[in-house]
Structure formats: C-alpha cells, structure tokens
Amino acid sequence: MAEPIVLACTPGGWPEDAPPRSALFCLSPEGHSGDDLEDLASYFRRLSDDHGMLPWTLAFRVIVPLIAKGAPKWRERMAASCYGLAICGVTNLADSWAGALNEATRRNDLHLNTLVPLRGVVPPAKLLSPTERFCPICYADDERSNRPKYNRLLWSIDCVTACQLHGVQLQPVVKAKRAKGSAFWLPGRAKRANASTFWLPGVSRVDGRSLASDTGTGAREYEIEFARLTANLIDDLHQHPHAFENIGAPATFLRYATDVLFAGNTTHFARHIAVSKGGLHEWTSGKIRPSLPRLVLIAYCCGCAVADVVLGNKVMLLKRPPPARPANLIVRRRNGALRPRQELQDEFEQIVESGTASSAREVADRLDVSTKFLRTLCPVLHKRLVDAGKERSQKAVKERGKLKFDEFQKSFDSMLERQERPVRRRVQSDVFERTGMTFGFKEAGRFLKRAHELADVDGRGKAGCGVGGCGGKPRTRNRPSVDRYL
After folding, report:
1. Whole-angstrom Cα distance, residue 212 to residue 147?
2. What is the mean pLDDT of the chain?
3. Residue 258 lies in a domain
4. Does 170 lie in the same domain as 79?
5. Which of 77, 117, 283, 437 has its CA 20 to 30 A from that of 375?
6. Quick check: 397 pLDDT over 80?
7. What does residue 14 show for φ and ψ, rounded to 5 degrees?
8. Bridge partners, 134 (sequence order)
9. Is residue 158 included in any domain, yes or no?
10. Whole domain around residue 398: which residue ranges?
11. Does the pLDDT of residue 260 top 70, yes or no?
C-alpha cells in the first residue's frame, strides 16, 4: 500500500518547533499594487518552470489532489484549467486554486492575485476577460529591470483595454494550433525548444520569441482612465477589505449624484452615462447592481473613484462628458421596436390567429423584437401564447412518459413469460438494448411498481416477483397513485 504524500513536513533531525517545509518553492508573486500585481495563472506558470515541469503535470500531481478527489477525467480537466484565466477569476475554481497554492507553498496571500476580493462587490458579468492579453512595453520593462516577465492581474479584467502606465492598448495573446492527437500545443518553428517555456508569460506560443519586441498601439484617453480607476479599486479592496463587506447596490451614490449634478432629473443622468432610464431606476431602487464596466463609466462621468460609487460616499463630484463611443454591454441586434406599435400589434394578432407560431420566442424573432417588448406590446396575446406553450409542453411530457412506460412494461412482461425475475436493472437493460431509452432511478422505481400492480390485476404475477423481491402480493404503502407521474 502506497504511503500518502505529505505536502508540508519537518525533515528528520530538525527541531520540533521548526516550521514545516512546503511541498513547492515559496515563490513570491511580482508586483505590489493594482497597477502591476501579478495574476495567479502567471504565478503558477512561473512556479512550474522553477520546478522544471509542465504546468499541467504540476497541477495534476500536486494542486488538484489538494482541491478535491474525483474521477481521472475530472482531475485532468481541473489540471488543464491552469492554462486559462479562470483560475484568477471570481468563481469557486479560483478560490480553490488560491487555497491549494497557499497550502502547497506555505503562503497566505495568493487570493489577492485573483479577482475573488471582487466577488461580493460587483456582479460577475463582464468581469473576467475571455482572452489573455498583454502590454508589450510592460514586458520590455521587465527585461530591462532583469526580472521575470509576468502577466498583470489588471489585464485579466474585461473592461480594461489599455495599459495605464504606458498608454497603449492591450494585445491578445496569439495561440498556436493544436496538433492532431496531441494533448498540448506544439511550437511552430522551434520544435526542439523546451515545451514548458512556451507557457511562460511574455513568450509567444507560436514560435517562442519574446513578446517584448512587439510594438504597442496608442490608447484613447478614456481607456487609460478606465484602467486607472480599475487599478485604484483593486488597491482599495486590498488595503481596506472590511469597508466593502455587506454592501448593497450603489443606490445611495446614484441618488446623490442625480441631485448634485442634474438637479434630481434622472432622465438627464441616464442619458449622461449612456444607459436607459429604466436601467438607472433599477440601480437606484437596489433591484440589480451595475456591472464593473458600468461602475467604471459612472465613476468616470462623475469625476470620482469606483470605491465611492460602490460604498455610496458623498464626495465632491465633477461632471465629465462620457466617452465618444462607450462600449455597449449588449449589442442590439433587433430593430423591430422602431416600427409603429399598432402595426406590430396587428401583425402579432395575425400570427397568433393563424397558429403559425408555437411560442413567444418564435413570434419575437419574426417581429424582430425581444420577448420582453413582446410582453409589453400585448399582454393578452402573450399570455395566450405562453399558456398554449405550457399545455403543449405538459402534453409532450405526458406522452413521453407513457411511451417510456409502455416499453418498460413490454420488457417486464417478456421476462415474466420467460419465468425470469423482472428486477429493475434487468428491465432497464432490456429496454436500453431494444430502444436505447434510459430511466432515472426514481422513474424506474415508479414504473416497476406500476408494472407489478398491473401484473397482479391481470393474474400474470407469480411468487417471487413481488415488490421488494419477497414474493407473494406486493406491499402497499400510503403513497399517491403513480398515474400522476405519467
């Protein structure tokens, strides 16, 4: 029997009060502020290079066992997450990775290299960037300072599109094509190079060259200011974490800004920050919270910090015009609402009366409007469509259940005719071989009970085939009839 691996222990001969040694090198993350703090994915890649191992191998052997136990396929997928930005986001995955790395390296601050501190402050929508990005001038500064190139945590935030230190736009990392039948990406023209170096920050995944040689494109002024505001928010979270506990929506600040800057006119304030009046009303009423891009935009237009918006601080405000082309959170692809309402209502009624649409979603697509707009356009017709859809769905479920029970009963009766004991697993296996149908555990139990009842009523039951395998008449219980499940 193999002995379990101890990840932190005291070597033999050391004093008993000596601190235990860590399983991995206690590598220090780079950076000290929101402007240059390293993210957890970059930290782990540099850590794997110091151990002379591929990131996936180190994650599979050391980190994943510390997170949880699971099937081999699950462990492989969990280890493969080290190549993405998800381990430095706000989900439980990032929290688990930070905790496991803290335990393996005997550190206690690696959760600051993720976006987990933002979890209770801003909604998770539009927070983590879908792609890995970099600033080439930052990499060049790393090389000139004789320090390892690393990725900044600020680059992993979706609303940050520029480097606030050098005033250039962030560039996406180009990924190499995966070779057929290979678990890892192969380098293009440098096949003899060490494969692990292609995963280090600042190294091209295509040919292994340094990304510090790239030239950056100048960023707009508001993009640089957005990055600065986000970096300041990260600093405020790290320096004063208790101030952000148990906070709600920034409704207090929005009402204060409306009164100070726009004399209480919510329509003008909504137009100033490029949102709808209804969206601003939901924020001020506390029903929903603005996402981080919207919080940064509000802070930019009001001339304050993002922390002031989140905490509801009544500070001095400065009206600043919004960017010329602010980034839309949702791209509008429906233009049907621009048509006259009476024309839309007549067409809506015609579609419903003709019966050519089976759901409200289908009608909305044909009118080129959203389902929410369709509900407000004509609530009566919308409810009629929804009720018809529910009735149709319930009928389909009932027919499906009846079909499955008929196939279950066929296998059950055939086993009785062959004088075999029709237990649940045998019946399920026979149905699967004939039709490919599968059953849930509770569903198969209900079908088996009903099949036994029908067999006893028809006189086809026999000793040894009762419910529970005890023979004789099936046991009766105070349970509702199984007819309602079909």
Report:
1. 13
2. 81
3. yes
4. yes
5. 283
6. yes
7. -80, 155
8. 171
9. yes
10. 394-485
11. yes
Could you report the per-residue pLDDT of 132-166, keeping only the tens digit for each? Answer: 999 999 999 999 999 999 999 999 999 999 999 99
Cα 146 to Cα 2: distance, rounded to the nearest angstrom:
44
Total tally of structural domains belonging to the chain: 4
The type of residue at 128 is L
Tokens of 401: 């259940």
- Same-domain check for residues 74 and 203: yes
Same domain assignment for residues 303 and 271: yes
Distance CA 359, CA 356 (A): 10
CATH of the domain at 262: 1.10.260.40
Chain length of the chain: 486
Could you tell me if 62 and 104 are in contact, meaning their C-beta atoms sit under 8 angstroms apart?
A: yes
Question: What confidence tens digit (pLDDT) does each residue in 165-195 have?
Answer: 999 999 998 876 554 444 443 333 333 334 4
| Beta strand residue intervals within 91-219, DSSP E | 133-134, 162-163, 168-169, 171-172
Helix, strand, coil abundance in the chain, percent, nearest 5? 50, 5, 45
Tell me, yes or no, whether 368 and 469 share the same domain: no
| Residue 459 pLDDT class (50, 70, 90 cuts) | low
* Residue 386 within any structural domain of the chain: no
- Residue spans of alpha helices (H) in 106-245: 136-144, 221-239
Which candidate, 452, 457, 442, places its Cα nearest to that of 474?
452
User: Helix axis angle, 441-457 relative to 424-435, nearest 10°?
Assistant: 100
Q: What SS3 state is found at 249?
A: coil
